[in-house]
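To: structure subgroup
Subject: Chain for Friday's discussion

All,

I'm putting the inputs and outputs inline so they're searchable in the archive.
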Amino acid sequence: MFPLLIYLAIGPGLAIPRTASTSFEMVAQAALEGSTRLPLWQLAYSLVFFAVAGLIALKPDALTQRLGKILCPLLLALIGALFVGCLLAPHPYGAAAEAYQTHPVIQGFLDGYQTMDAIAALVFGSVIALNLRALGLTEAHAIRTEAALDGVGAGVLLGVVYLCLAHIGGVSGGAWPGAKNGAQVLSQLAGSVYGRGGMALLAAIFVVACLNTCVGLLSSCASYFHQRLPKVSYPAWVALFALISVGISNVGLNQILDLSVPVLNLLYPIVLVLILLGAIAYVSIVLMVCWKETHVAAPGKDYEAMLVLGAQVKPDGTPSLQLQWRLEKAAETYRQKKVPVVVCGGQGGNEPAPEAVVMRDVLIGLGVDEDMILMDTTSASTHSNIKNAMQLLGGRNVTKVMIITSDYHLPRAIAIAEDNGLTAYGIGAPTKLGLRFWLKNHCREALAWCKYWAVKYTHLPLE
């Protein structure tokens, strides 16, 4: 029920209609001031606005090309122009509003609810994943990693944007107190700094920003409801939400804002608690990964086979540094005890050959006997690594294995092997790639542990 309320709030119930109402208010300030036909102009504007947004949203996997490369950079440039104008033509800050004078932190949180950033962040993941796939990422772990990095980048960029807007708001609030909403305040400031051209600039900022937001919200909401009710097509959901939003948006911005306050005050605390708990849990799992990799039991000597788990192969067909270190550790271990060696790894979308084939060739060059190497060229995860290796070793009565992989990955690999009935030892190849790659690997491994527990305890088909 809660996800449904979230999607309705960021969808046709509040957020989508507000994108047209907010941007129209700016257009009206810039070009339609004093017109006696504002309701008709607003209806016409909302029809055109949602038609354009709906057409763009029909292809959610192309949003990177349409929003990321064109509309978003344009929006940032327009905001930057307004901010620079404020710096060049400074106005003094006005007194804080009454609510901010007594309880600034609480009021800031409550007003911050109106951005709906946190709520939207919970549901934009599917759109981001689609666009990452469209850019050529096919492996789940790569999509998760890039999505996490994109989230950090977006958070930093939004922080900079909000700092600029805070300065703009402080200046304009002091010069023009008593405005009913932020759109009116900003339009007055833009007109003061740049004249009529400034109001046109601000109108362009709002139209582009609201169009970006509307497209993302239409795509996310339509995807969600299409998954729940697949008999209704994705384009049909986009059209339905656009039509509903046309009607609600014509109620007016102030009325929508008044309606949104009780709804957001109900939903946002729950959302923030979920995000906080998720962040605490995630950091705890990352720390667990760090602890586990330093507390792997000393390997026994009675293993009967060796499993070398794959990693990325470069486009030129050579192993990545992580894979090279795993193979060197495997060759060193093989010289101590010659047992069958299973090399595990399929072929990723940007790899010229299966990882197992490259691993075999490198191991032969490092002195491992070719007739002792078995290849699993189809696996794409640690679970499939272990299962496919067991099948290859099926006729040898192997029950004890030595697993060679990167140090941060080793505890989970041992756990999966033990879940499959093996007695598993392990030797971790050190990862010596610096802080950035250390963070990337450990954060990704934390997500992999979450997937491992989901597969083990809920039997969800995540493989």
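Points worth raising on Friday:
The chain has a mean pLDDT of 82.
The chain is about 70% helix and 5% strand.

D.
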